[in-house]
Design brief:
seven-stranded mixed β-sheet, five-stranded antiparallel β-sheet, alpha/beta, 3 domains, Rossmann fold
């Protein structure tokens, strides 16, 4: 699919080039889901480690923590001490950790997933370095979240939907499916952006019209507001707080699901198995690989369980 070798892409990244834009060059079918997800995965994988490195800069860390404190305050206004949290697009956990630090309560079930295994392994280290030892991480995508229905009291994202323009509806449907109550989106706002900012968002294929799409899907919009703190004025972040139809208490313990069938996965050997799709999903260094493309057809396993 890519005309560029991994080495060429790495060199381009080091020179500060936009990898997603580079991969799109010469490809007219940019809204093909498989292509776009592949572009995002490559770009994020090449960036892995850079977000934690940036947190070593005191000025950057101070702005990041101020922004995440605002996230935590907004979250606390709409949900009282959730037992379970899912961070979609967890990255290296440099947003998740400051949010957890800013909440005035402990969360029993902390979960996160990301398209890039390299970023998730960094997230694992960053969580532990900051005193969080009870959590669960995996690889997965927003278009097919690897958890069963109604798994979490709170599902949140932060600039994770951002590059997925054109797929807003399917992602919002998935976020609704795995949440039992609140979905908190801290994403770039096309509506609040300047004319220059809107042009930039269109160029990079960012998400748009999230409130309108969410409302059509049946979400109740509790709040939509521009944040006070911004890392990039051309890419303003807004808090979109949504409540699912017929909110309920989340299941006691979130469970992994097959990204194909959305049914619960069973632990098996060095990974997880789906009785419905006959796929085995391996894990590397304790990180389950729960993307459809990672599933290995292994129907013989069904005979041994």
């Amino acid at each position: 699919m890519s005309k560029h070798s991994a080495k060429e892409l790495l060199e381009a990244y080091k020179k500060g080039k936009n990898i997603i834009q580079l991969l799109k060059e010469g490809n007219s079918d940019e809204f093909n889901l498989a292509n776009k997800m592949s572009y995002i995965e490559i770009a994020y994988d090449l960036q892995s480690g850079s977000y934690i490195e940036a947190m070593k800069n005191p000025e950057h860390e101070a702005i990041k923590r101020e922004k995440c404190k605002e996230y935590a305050e907004i979250i606390s206004n709409y949900i009282d001490k959730p037992k379970s949290i899912l961070k979609g697009g967890v990255g290296e956990a440099v947003t998740l950790v400051p949010i957890l630090d800013s909440l005035n309560f402990n969360v029993k079930n902390i979960h996160g997933f990301d398209i890039s295994w390299s970023r998730v392994i960094h997230a694992k280290s960053f969580l532990k370095e900051n005193g969080y030892n009870d959590f669960s991480l995996c690889t997965g995508v927003l278009q097919s979240i690897p958890y069963v229905n109604n798994s979490f009291d709170l599902v949140m994202t932060s600039h994770s939907l951002e590059p997925n323009g054109g797929f807003e509806k399917i992602i919002l449907q998935e976020l609704m499916r795995v949440s039992s109550n609140i979905v908190a989106l801290f994403e770039p706002s096309y509506e609040f952006a300047s004319k220059e900012g809107r042009k930039r968002m269109i160029k990079h294929g960012y998400v748009k019209n999230l409130p309108a799409i969410a409302e059509k899907l049946g979400f109740r919009i509790l709040s939509y507001e521009k944040l006070k703190t911004s890392m990039n004025p051309k890419n303003p972040t807004a808090a979109l707080i949504l409540q699912v139809p017929n909110p309920k208490e989340a299941i006691d313990k979130p469970k992994f699901a097959c990204p194909i069938t959305r049914e619960e996965l069973l632990p098996y050997s060095t990974g997880f198995f789906s009785k419905e799709s006959f796929r085995f999903y391996p894990q590397i260094d304790g990180i389950p690989s729960l993307r459809e493309k990672n599933g290995i057809l292994a129907s013989s396993i069904i005979k041994s369980i």
